[in-house]
Amino acid sequence: MTACLIVDDELDIRTLIALSLRREGVTCHLAADLASARAQLAELGHTLSFCLTDMRLPDGDGLDLLDEIRQRFPDLPVAVITAHGQVDAAVRALKAGAFDFVSKPIEQLVLKRLLRDALKARTLDSATDGARLDAEGVSATHQETAPADGQPDVGMNAAAKSPLIGQSRAMQMLRETIAKVARSQAPVFICGESGTGKELVARQIHELSGRADGPFIPVNCGAIPAELIESELFGHRKGAFTGAHQAHEGLFRAAEGGSLFLDEVADLPLGLQVKLLRAIQERKVRPVGELTEVPIDVRIISASHQDLNAAVRDGRFRHDLFYRLNVIELRVPPLRARLEDLPELCAHILGKLAEREHRRPPHLTADALHWLAQQSFEGNVRALENLLERAIALTDSDLLGVAALTDFPDTGALTPAIDQNNAHLDTSGVVKSTWGAAPPTSALEAEEQRQVLSALETTRWNRSEAARRLGLSLRQLRYRLAKWGVE
Predict the structure, then answer these.
(1) Helix 62-72 × helix 34-44 angle, to 10°
(2) Per-residue pLDDT tens for 58-78?
(3) pTM of the prediction?
(4) CA separation for the pair 387, 401 (Å, rounded)
């Protein structure tokens, strides 16, 4: 049985909400103030499916009731009722843990959507609790049967099902936060450097939410020309402007019942930011050329690699829009902050690339992993994936060494930190005295020469075998020897 607690000091509003919800088969319990709501919670709290409370009550604040419910009944979804235009109050409620809000006057369709989302949120909470208990049971069993070598069994980890790769503390916390914010309908702002996987995080929020059955519509705000972006987001009617030969529903309406991901939202023109703010606040859009607004049911997830606080200070981004988008903030850690994830991340990327190329997944040598850990990775996971993709394309071996990763004229966003760390070393003549190789230009090249010549000595100058051990093709090895003047 679905039951709801409705808390509002206005009798007409309480009655109207109750009548609307009863048509949907909901049992309604009514309270006019905070004291009455507390009494009903004490008696009926465990039987309720969700709660709908006004922000302003005669004997207290609706946020006080929200806080008490979160402490005593953490799985009970709470939505708040705000006066029309009270955006600050709605944002405060969402930040405090409300899963959604409605503004007066409350429409029947809005209540039906609220009921649907509340029941989905309750179902998600129950499923999350069950998964957590299962994971704890698996974890306890796994600890008893852990392998003797101490290596983690990723397959036994509950997080292994997540597309967010890595067992570092930073990634564990990110996955835990995603699971929490997915239950809410509040806007989420994802910040992080380029290449960290912000869209992947947004997709995960959508897939874990009650909107998972609806569409996920990503849009790169910086990739759409300024003169077209209003039409792309809000739609247009036929003939609204030159070239509008047919009507276009727009991305907001295409995301109906699902999530709209606004990537690089900082690139939106200031004029459009005003219209986006209104669409988020009113939950309505007006297509270009239309006179009437169209209601929408969309969750907004936005992201940017820029510092939006700095953009607000510089006048490039509206403060009120930032306040509205940044109800919940998620920070995606850069790769250099979770280097312990590098082996697992590389194995995942190489496996994916090998599957695409219909070949066996190659493996990185310990020296190659050590070299990768020395890089700054300004392009983060995207830069790592590009580097491994080039290496696997140019190498036939199933073993990738340092040489396979550095056989490029320009490694893009990679900065060889080892050059800076070892700048004090005298690398001249490291191998020249023995094989007549040209002096290395950096500590990195000196280490590369050492590994290549060592492999050649070990294999008695069997170049094919040395190339195999180094994870290089014979062509790549010959190129290096020619470059160094070694015959």
Answers:
(1) 20
(2) 998 888 999 999 899 988 999
(3) 0.71
(4) 13
